[in-house]
């Protein structure tokens, strides 16, 4: 198994967002695991291989904040980047760490945040 490609999981209930993020991340050399809901990710066998998680905040069933909380229990230290199309959600403390993006976001800024998250991974 090669460590050259990092595995980024993307969770969003909007298929267009999943497709565009998958294209963006793969073009930057990442391996992508796309999921249409938090439950789909949590019930998959992908959890051990994920290096970074990008999740939408506003999703039916389980929102991104709850998914982030659960992932911090199951995979402590896993970097999580939150995205949202809802402007009524106040920016969480993560915003100052470059881990919060409002749609539409700048793809290069997101790739830079992923790079920072992957290299600054707390262990």
UniProtKB/TrEMBL annotation:
Which residues get modified to 4-aspartylphosphate? 56
Highest taxon of the lineage: Bacteria
Q: Which PROSITE patterns match?
A: RESPONSE_REGULATORY (PS50110)
Q: Which Pfam families match?
A: Response_reg
Which keywords appear in this protein's UniProt record, sorted alphabetically?
Answer: Phosphoprotein
SUPFAM superfamilies registered for this protein in UniProt:
CheY-like
The chain positions of domain Response regulatory read 7-118
DNA repair: is it a keyword of this entry?
no
- Protein name according to UniProt: Response regulator
**What is the species of this protein?**
Sinorhizobium garamanticum
């Amino acid at each position: 198994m090669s460590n050259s490609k990092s595995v980024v999981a993307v969770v969003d209930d909007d298929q267009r967002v999943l497709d565009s993020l998958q294209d963006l991340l793969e073009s930057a050399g990442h391996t992508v695991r796309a999921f249409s809901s938090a439950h789909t990710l949590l019930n998959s066998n992908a959890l051990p291989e994920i290096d970074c998680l990008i999740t939408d905040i506003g999703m039916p069933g389980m929102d991104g904040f709850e998914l982030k909380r659960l992932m911090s229990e199951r995979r402590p230290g896993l970097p999580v980047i939150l995205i949202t199309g809802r402007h009524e959600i106040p920016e969480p403390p993560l915003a100052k760490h470059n881990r919060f993006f409002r749609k539409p976001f700048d793809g290069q800024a997101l790739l830079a945040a992923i790079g920072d998250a992957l290299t600054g991974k707390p262990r």
